[in-house]
C-alpha cells in the first residue's frame, strides 16, 4: 500500500456516458490522490451523481477508462467486485435495508462478502456504530430512527467493509435542516482521519472547510477544478461564478 | 407496491452479488408484500377442493355425500361439514396473520 501511495487512487480518463441519446458525461477527466477530499457541485442534471455512480459501476460508462486503486473497471464481474470492495457509498435516500435491524444492516455485507465470523462482524459493527454515536440504537429497525440517524448508520454500514474510498451522493439533501450538522460532523471526522472522499453536495460550508479540491460540473462537463480558497473567492469561469452567486445569495 | 431500487443498489455497492441481493434483500421484502394476497388465494383454493367430489375424487365433500347416502340426514351432515370448513379457514387465516405479523415487525415505529 505504501509503495503506490503516490499513485492516484481514482483515475478517470475521457469518460463518456449516454442515457439513450442524452450525453450525461462528456469526456470527463478526474484524478483523486490517496487521502484527497473532493467535493463535486453543480446544478441539477449536470452529471454529478452519474459521475460518482460510474465510479462503483452503478452506472456503466460507455467509453473511457476508470481505474480505482489499480483495478480498471471493465465488464468483468471480478473487476467490478474488486472495485466495489475498495469503494463505499452513501446515498441521498439512505437505503438502509428496512427488514434488518441496525446492527444486522451493518453485519450483512461483511458476512456475505468477507465471510468473516459473526462475532467479529458484530464487534466491527458496534465499533462503527459508536463512531457515528448511535450504539444504543443497534437493535432497532431503520424506520424507528430519525433521518440523520439513518444516514449515520448508512455511513457506518459502508465503513464496515473497510473501503479505501468513500463516495457520498448528496448525503444531506434528504434531511431536515437540524439533522444536517450531525451527519456533516461524522463526515468531517472521517475526513480528518485521512479517508479519501468524493462528495456530491450542496453544503458549501463543508466544501470550504474540508475539501482539498472542488469540482464544478455543468451539462456533463467538468467546468472548473480548484482548491476551495480559489474556487469560491476567485473562480475563473463565468458559469462557476453564476452558479456560486445563485447558491450563496440565499 | 414495489421494492425500492435503491436498496438493491446499496447492496450492490456493498459488494453483494446478484444472487445474494435476491436472497437477502429482495425476497424477504417481496414475500411480506405478497402474504395478504397469497393467503386469500390459499383459502379460496381450500374451499375449491369441494369441487373435486363432482369428478368422484373423495375429499371432505365427497365423504359427506357418502355419509348422507347412508344416513339420509342432510342437515346434520352438511352443517357439520360447513363447520369443519369454517374451522380450517379460521386456522389458515390465523396462521397467515401470524406469519404476516412476524414478517412485518420492522414496519412498526414503536418498540
Written account of the structure:
The complex is a heterodimer of chains A (250) and B (111). With 250 residues, chain A is an alpha/beta fold. Chain A is built from 9 helices and 10 strands. In chain A, the strands form 2 sheets. In chain A, strands 6-7-8-3-9-10 form a 6-stranded mixed β-sheet, sandwiched between helices. Chain A has a 4-stranded antiparallel β-sheet with strand order 2-1-4-5, with helices on one face. The model of chain A has no long low-confidence stretch (mean pLDDT 93). Chain B has 111 residues and is mainly alpha-helical. Chain B has 4 helices and no strands. Chain B has helices spanning 5-13, 18-48, 60-71, 74-103. Chain B starts with a helix and ends in an 8-residue tail after the last helix. The A-B interface holds A 56, 58, 81, 84-85, 87-89, 91, 93, 95-101, 108-109, 112-113, 140-144, 154, 157-158, 161 and B 4, 6-7, 9-17, 20, 24-25, 28-29, 32, 103, 105-111.
